[in-house]
């Protein structure tokens, strides 16, 4: 992944993770594995865990500890009402930015 891709991903990763959690509850490794399957191969587990701690502290997710067959209980994260509101705002902002970027690109193609 290029430096530019890495920087752009940093700015959107929170929204991406919340979008994943909008479909179903998940724990950190599950989220990381899914992202890697989708082509985000350079994402480190530590990045996702740090992000999950941040969104938990901000009250955007609920956390439930679930027993694990291997090791300590897992923290399973699910999107709550505040998180859904934040995700809605993320998508509105995303739409705004992509429309403006498309306009800029179209002007540059002429």
Characterise this structure.
The protein is an alpha+beta fold. The protein has a single domain, classed as Orthogonal Bundle (Arc Repressor Mutant, subunit A). 66% of the residues lie in helices and 13% in strands. The chain has four helices and three strands, in the order αβααββα. The chain has a three-stranded antiparallel beta sheet. The longest helix has 29 residues. The two termini are 30 Å apart.
- Give the CATH topology: Arc Repressor Mutant, subunit A
Uncertain residue ranges: none
Order of helices and strands: HEHHEEH
Overall form: globular
CATH architecture descriptor: Orthogonal Bundle
Number of domains: 1
Please name the defining characteristics of this protein.
110 residues; alpha+beta; Arc Repressor Mutant, subunit A; three-stranded antiparallel β-sheet; 4 helices; 3 strands
């Amino acid at each position: 992944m290029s430096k530019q891709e890495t920087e752009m991903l940093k700015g959107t990763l929170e929204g991406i993770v919340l979008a994943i959690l909008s479909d179903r509850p998940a724990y950190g490794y599950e989220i990381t594995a899914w992202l890697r399957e989708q082509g985000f191969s350079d994402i480190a587990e530590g990045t996702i865990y740090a992000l999950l701690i941040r969104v938990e502290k901000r009250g955007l997710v609920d956390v439930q500890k679930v027993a694990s067959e291997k090791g300590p209980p897992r923290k399973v994260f699910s999107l709550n009402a505040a998180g859904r509101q934040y995700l809605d705002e993320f998508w509105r902002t995303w739409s705004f930015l992509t429309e403006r970027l498309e306009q800029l690109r179209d002007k540059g193609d002429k």
